[in-house]
Amino acid sequence: MSLPRLTTHEMAARLAADITDGAYVNLGIGMPVTVANHVPAGRQVIYHSENGILGVGRSPEPGEDHDPDLINAAKDPVTLIEGGCYFDTAESFAMMRGGHLDLAVLGAFQVSATGDLANWATHDATYPPAVGGAMDLAVGAKTVYVLMRHTAKDGTPKLVEACDLPLTGAACVSRVYTDLGVFEIDRDNAAAKVIERFDGVSFDALQAVTGLTLVE
Amino acid sequence: MIDKFWPDMGAAVADMPDGASVMIGGFGSSGIPLALIDAVCAAGPRHLTVISNNTGSGETGVSALLREGLVDKVVCSYPRSRGSVWFERLYQQNAIELELVPQGTLAERMRAAGAGLGGFFTPTGYGTALADGKETRMIDGRGHVLEAPLAADYALLSAYKADPWGNLVYNTAARNFNPVMATAAGCAVVEVGARVALGELNPEAVASPGIFIDRVVVREQP
After folding, report:
1. Does residue A114 lie in a domain region?
2. Which of A59, B43, B164, B174 is the most buried (most CB within 10 A)?
């Protein structure tokens, strides 16, 4: 049975709707960087990019004049909003570890019921691991949200009881936004509560593609 | 008269010996010293240790050094990205050593080396496979990992403009690892878009003070 799934941009817009006014928010490599294209009306949000930018703006339009050095964590071209600034990598990671970021949005291979995050290494020994800034964000950001597809390409659930992939950080994720719904991770009780199911996704269908027991 | 400018890229890297450790600035395609890397490829020192955030894309940047077989080991936070074919090929053949370091730890290890510190405790990586075998300590109730300073024989860097004293300014997000690497290298070599006269740079805007810079070469305009 195929479920109706949100597109990447719909997922990004859904997550962005929950970012509070005035927040400093890091956007990680992969799907999370697309969140910069979405700022809810009436709010000011300052997006941080690990390579040394505060105030990441939208992606440039095709054909728009663009500075080739101005890229985000995913190495895609971006713009700078008015009031934005640049700094070096050491200062950028001081912002992360030092607890100055309100929120980090990260991609994931797996998230567990206790909020463990796995997103840097697979079981494939021929596939090079890549950690980037994920471990720094996992320990440093005040809040960590994950933006990921609900299942892997082969259909394997990514929301699981316990991660079997190497951990990026333990007990660090508080919410997960997927293409099927939004989930609050209750780390103390090892439970994932469904905050929202997207149109046409029944609870039973959602549970069937999830590797942990969901709480309605 | 201090003038750190060198006439050409080749001369500026000609003394790099076999077995050298080399930091290479840049993040993705931004702030990479492409011309200096090409000069190292031409000079051909072997058994290099390359310390860089990424491993290059396609045939350019760090990829070119890998393709030429000049590199034994990379110290890197994100070696796998779009187009990192040369690294992935060598990795699959078990023909290259990888030391994977979280990006903030990589930058801070350089900062420690450049700032004369013997290392630091960080919560990053605590309890993960990247902390295996490292000393740990509980600080304020939280687990921390002891990380060592990271220095290098050379740093190859890229900047926007330099004056004769080696004061540097950067273009937008091309700053990234360049300033911190400059502090941690025995010989910091930088390619720049333009030479400006002493006094022309806004002192408030200098992101790498010339004390950290040894050699500067002007990049030829395409």
Report:
1. yes
2. B174
